[in-house]
């Protein structure tokens, strides 16, 4: 039986919220989806019947391997679509999320497999997030927040934790794009803002921004 749009939105939320022990609370889901707790409880009972989660009253949900795979496959559709829009249709990385939100609910596996083939099987989406494969497997990345780095370090901008339009426009205006080298020149003791150098030009980044920029050495 095909998943509904609502089920897919819940699955995607589980994917983003689950911790290292495959656990997530009803309250976390409720806040993330802006859905009332009783509705979340009812949906998670249905998910338990499908063996996507282990549900016990007043305890965190445990996402099963089957549930993790189902969630990853929804995310796969979303991230492949974003990559297609950027690489083949010349959309900016700040303009693709909303369109992908709509197309991710297409049920045709062949459609997304063809998209994957046309793109030559990309491993990452335009925002640096790994794209799950057809079996729901995902590449593990050893990344850290820019805000955790020290003065004098030079790191590579690899991914963002937030892909909303305003933040991506903020980065684009400062020429802060994926794979750019970022040299940390100064960290303000008062507000933890960073002065960085990118392509020979200095920029000041707020703590809010540096928390959402993921980098590697």
From TrEMBL:
Function, please?
In the presence of manganese, represses expression of mntH and mntS. Up-regulates expression of mntP.
- Pfam families named among the record's database cross-references: Fe_dep_repr_C (PF02742), Fe_dep_repress (PF01325), FeoA (PF04023)
Q: Which SUPFAM superfamilies does the UniProt record give?
A: Iron-dependent repressor protein, dimerization domain, Winged helix' DNA-binding domain
Q: Quaternary arrangement and interactors, per the entry?
A: Homodimer.
Query: Which residue spans traverse the membrane?
Result: none
Name the record gives this protein: Transcriptional regulator MntR
Which SMART domains does the record match to this protein?
HTH_DTXR
Per the record, the similarity remark reads:
Belongs to the DtxR/MntR family.
User: What species is given as this protein's source?
Assistant: Chryseobacterium salviniae
Keyword terms: Activator, Cytoplasm, DNA-binding, Manganese, Repressor, Transcription, Transcription regulation
Q: What is the lineage of its organism?
A: Bacteria, Pseudomonadati, Bacteroidota, Flavobacteriia, Flavobacteriales
Q: Which domain of life is it from?
A: Bacteria
* Occurrences of domain HTH dtxR-type (ranges): 1-64
| Location(s), subcellular | Cytoplasm
